[in-house]
Predict the structure.
Amino acid sequence: MEPDMRAQGETGEAGQVLVSGKESHFPVVPPRILLTDQEGTYGASEGESLNPEGESILKDLRETSQVRIHRSERLFQGTLRIGGLFVLALFATVLGVSIVEAWPSIEKFGWSFLWTSTWNPHRQIFGAWTYIVGTFWVTGIALLFAIPIAILSSLFLSDYSPKWLVGGVSTLMEMLAGIPSIVFGAFGIIFMVPLLRDHVEPFLSDTLGKHWDFFNGDSMGYGILAAGLVVGIMVIPLVATVTRDSLVMVPRETVEAAYALGSTKAETVFFVKLPAVVPGITGAVILGFGRAIGETMAVLLLIGNQASIPTSIQDVGYTISSLLANTFTYAVIDPLYAAAEIELGLILLVISLVVNTLGRELLMKLMGGRLAGSVGGG
Amino acid sequence: MNIVKVTAGFAAALAVVSVLSGVGTARATDLTISGSTMLFPLEQVWANAYMKSHPGVHISVASTGSGFGISNAANGNITIGASDAYLTKDLRKRYGSLASIPVAFDDTQVIYNIPGVHKSQLIRMDGPTLARIFMGKIRFWDDKAIRAINPHVRFPHRRIKVIHRADASGTTFVFTDYLSQTSKEWYEEIGRDLSPSWPVGSGYNGSDAVVAAVMATPGAIGYVGLGWINEYHLSSMALKNLDGYYVVGSVKTIRNAGFAALHDPTFPDDFNRTIVWNLHGKDVYPDANFEFWMVSTDLPHSTMKEVKKMLVWALTKGQQEKYTVKTGFAPLPFAPLKPRLNKILNRLLPGNTMKIETGG
């Protein structure tokens, strides 16, 4: 009966393997040895192979099921791995290709590329300064415009607005975030530009402009102000949504404690709730920054695309992304020109990468990861 | 540079695929034309008319910019590259296989928006003054340099707002060519380019945007091609030509420029010279240019045959006013062009003399 016993034990083992694979604590005989056993290499196992037919059927069964499990398991794992690695590879490719293609420019200009303000394809001199400054101008104006409005609107929605309005306004906010930027660009041209040209900018020149040149100018309508305001409109929904989400998460106990201590509603909102969500707002602002800095189409239509460093709020300017959009198809006919433009793209990539990571990390850390859903960004 | 080329090629292929995918029938020949945004409307009407009269041939047209057209015609991604600019020395060195064939006439004209000056009032302009305006050295409309050329016009004391193209453009090339040839300052500081580094002003993407910006901005000055002048009924400035005449751009005056160039025995056979400024005559517009098709001489024999057929059609029947003038171009002056065109066409497909018979 020895062989039968053995066979039973082995069946049991096979069952274990079926369930938990490698984690089996039984002294499983590796299939390899069983195979060699079948060939009768070991003298010691001769006695066991008294009933070779039954044993081999069992072995076959075991092997096939094991192999099948292994295969499907591995296939599934492999598929998942491909998905995961693809994202990594994609990122590495984008970064790698950009660096390789930008290399002629990186090599020739070095770090001085960053603070050189001449951009002259004709003389083969390239410097990013003008475009970096323009990019930060637009982003700065956008954030200055967007942050107060976003915070006010989210405070209103979380504490003061009638219930029926909350749903409507939140939905509108989300829709606003989904509108393609070219639509905002067109809106800027037909609404914002004439408004700025005929009313806002002459007003600025006549009032603040009398004292500070910074507000004086030609009243073109087009320029960093128009571009910044429109990008600001695009950033509002992002900042407002994240801020509102963090306001909702302020513990009820905290708020009730404030009321219990005799605070008015305004005091509670301003001195208790608002400070509690400062980290959330900071994260939202950083994400908004990431959104604003890469905005292309709306900016291209409105900024006036002039490679000069703005000295006034009414000046025209140029951003990295709009320069690429305007001239990249032409730049490809000259290797150094193309390399310089790709290096500009690389700068933008690095800035938005750093900023987005920072914003995300901050939000995750301070809000305990509960905001993960709304930190998608644009 | 390689990956850039591949990417550009991929973009071209995508453009082509997206055009092709709309058509399901089997075709014998596919030609792809891509490049100059200026030439694009004309190419569209040509392609439609040609496909109607030549069943079996399919032409897809895309507007991607002259630079793209030149580089992709050279590496074979597209059959024909359309360009507003001729092949300069640099480009000829880089893309030795390309032959440029003039297919239409165009120009660049200066448009303006001066409050208080009526549209019907003719405004004259010469090269040096125009260059100084676009360099930001003349800042007001009532500057004495402008008044000196236009003693009959009362200009307001208003800031001049320079409007230029932001994208790389053949229109810009022709415009800066005029400035380079007439103004030493411009030539030394900025030069002629599809996308120069503009000292002042504001840039817009495409001629339509330039027209819109000039019309919307009081005090603006800008430049666009003949097609836009006709389409939007704009008035443009009369530019001073080599012989001192002030000429307004029109189909007639830019054709005169073509005649003048082609009758000039020193004009090169491969058209690698500008026809801006350096021409004599009373009614010769000083800022006209040929629009080109770039064809690589390395194309496979069978494709080349079709390309040549299409070329000959475009240069003869395609020059009719219903195609050219309607889309904003002037027809090529045919008779003086013929011997030179024959030479180019025979370079493309040697040993087979093409017979170009009649013009538009």
Remarks:
- The longest strand of chain B covers residues 98-113.
- Chain B is about 40% helix and 20% strand.
